[in-house]
Structures are given as structure tokens and as C-alpha cells.
Amino acid sequence: MALEKLNDQQINFLNNFVMKIRSAEVGEIAGEAAWLKLQAALEPDVTAALKADHAEATKIRGAWGMALDKAEAGDFAGATTIAKRIEALLGKEAAPSDIPTNVVAFQKSRIMWISAKRDMQNGLSSFRKAVADQASDDEDLKDIVKAADTLVAEFDAFDTHLEDQLDQITQTPEGPERTKLKSAAKAALSDYMATLNNPFFSVIDNNPFVSVNVAARGRQSLSVISAALL
């Protein structure tokens, strides 16, 4: 659409929209630049501290892993915040009270669940495609395609609540708040297990169309995470 065909209100909207996008991009670029600068300055100190078996090596290793994960996910502000905490750890032998401990199991659990969900979703997509391919020329199988679509829609029950709770746990010191977060994570895990036990998921892994590992993959991962939350 040519600009001469737009009225003033439409042109102003588009101009403001573009400015907001550019502003957001500039902010993100600045955040990434700040993180990269801090990472370059801090990484040699982290490496040296770990090699020297620093008194806070376990906390430094865990926090550094968290910072790198945040940066990889595009959360440069979060990565920078954690890196600032690492600077404090490197600066003295006694750890500040707000540096979380015992976070590795929760970090691994979060990564495991995200990976499991991706595998489960891929399996469901393969199942749906296989059913659709079989039903393309068979009217009697149309209802099966609808059932497959219903099953795929059921996957929406696996939201981000569990991984969000696990992420918060890794950033929270031992104490009442972490206990509360663990309880919330257990509740989400219980809901997911219940979803996997519904009639749809109970038969998906044994379907006659394509070999998939959806329900079993989910249950196995959730069982491991459940043990980490004890």
C-alpha cells in the first residue's frame, strides 16, 4: 500500500510502530553488548577460580552455568545480574547470603523437561501426520484424524509452568521461599502426570501408524524431576 493512500492517523501509527520496534532492538543490542563485555572480563577469573578450587567453586560453577544459559536464551539482563553475583563471590571467600546453593539438579531438571517436551511434541506431530497420510483417501478414517487433532491439542496442557518454577528455584536461596517454589513445581508436575494418564496418551505409544515415544518419554523425565524436588 502506497503512503499516499494512507490517512494521517494510519501514517502516524506506522511511524510509531517502527520506532517502538527499533527502540526494542536497540535495547536488546545494548543488553547483549553489556553481557558480552562482562563475560569476556569475567570468564578468565571464573576459569582460574575453578582450577584453583576456590572456596566457593561449587557456587561459582553453578551460577556461571546459569548465566550462560540465560544469555543463550536471550535473557542478557538476567545473565548480567547473575554475573554480578559471581563477581561478589570471586571477591571474597565467604559467599553472600543471597547466592543460591544446590542448584545443579534443578538446572538439569529444567533442561531435561524442555528437551522432553520437544521430543514429545515431535512425536505427536509424527503421529498426526502418519494418521492424516493414511486417511487421505479413506473416509472411514476421518474420525481418527479428528481424534489425532484432539490429542495434539491436549499437548497445550504442558505449558511452561514447571520450567519457570525450576528456573526460579535456581535463583532462590535455601529457605521458605525455595520450599514454596518446590511445592509449586511439584503441583505442576502432578498435573502433567495426570494429563499423561488420560485415555489419549495411554495408547499413543502403541499406535499402529508410526513408532513414537511420547507418554513414556514424558513420564520418565517427570519421574526424574520428581526425585530432584524431594
Defining traits:
single chain; about 230 residues; mainly alpha; about 75% helix
Give me a quick take on this structure.
The protein is mostly helical.
Helix content range of the residues, please? over 70%
Q: Count the DSSP helices.
A: 9
Please tell me the overall pLDDT. 79
Question: What global shape is seen?
Answer: elongated
* Biggest sheet layout: none
Number of strands: 0
Number of domains: 2
Query: What's the SSE pattern?
Result: HHHHHHHHH
Report the portion of residues in β strands. Answer: under 5%
Could you say which structural class the secondary elements and strand pairing correspond to? mainly alpha
Descriptive notes:
The chain is mainly alpha-helical and 230 residues long. It has 2 domains: 3-91; 104-228. It is 75% helix and 0% strand. It contains 9 helices and no strands. The protein has helices at 8-51, 57-72, 76-91, 104-135, 142-154, 161-170, 176-196, 199-204, 215-228. α4 (104-135) runs antiparallel to α6 (161-170) and α6 packs antiparallel against α7 (176-196). The longest helix has 44 residues, at 8-51. It is elongated, with a radius of gyration of 24 Å. It starts with 7 loop residues before the first helix and ends with a helix.
